[in-house]
From TrEMBL:
Keywords: Arsenical resistance, Oxidoreductase. PANTHER family: ARSENATE REDUCTASE. This is Putative arsenate reductase (ArsC). The keyword Protease does not apply.
Amino acid sequence: MTHATDGLPGREVLDQLDRITDELTDRFHGTFGRETVEHFVEETFRLLDRSATVKIYLPTLTAHFARERLVDLAKVDGLTLVTAPQVLFVCVHNVGRSQLAAALLNHHAFGHVMVRSAGSQPQGEIPPVITEALGELDIQLAGAFPKPLTDEVVRAADVVVTMGCGDACPIFPGKRYLDWDVADPMGQPLSVVRGIRDDIGRRVRHLLDELID
């Protein structure tokens, strides 16, 4: 495998991916072998490399997203006991509506729900206005970034909430699918984004009540 990214030589990237594989192999010891972990690390890097705008952070993002994907795969394969319901929010670019929804549900659920977000065409960066709107509620969006929609994250979800991404999300039996008609905050001023945030917040709290009733 050979990679080159802006600001990082290919050899350094390979070394970092090897380190990530070592760390995740230790973390998932007894659940997944090194070959499976290595496959997911390499695939995750390629997926993120397609849409990343600041590629110097790719190894760090790869480590985070590969770990999430392996957690979800373990749930799908019945290799781990997960009692909390899992919700996946999907929009087009995973920088606006789905990030708002995921952050709000995480905030209100207090760890009682596993939350994921993804984009059917992930790209760009999360706009400062999204971070500012959440910050007004003392919700921090540290570490969030646009992620692609992958098979295992959909299969691991109990509820899939789509927001403006059409038919991009694959359909699996036994899951609850919701389509929220929510305005797109991209390019909007803070005053408009506040209203979208509050609309999503009401929907999230209603969904949470149903999940943990």
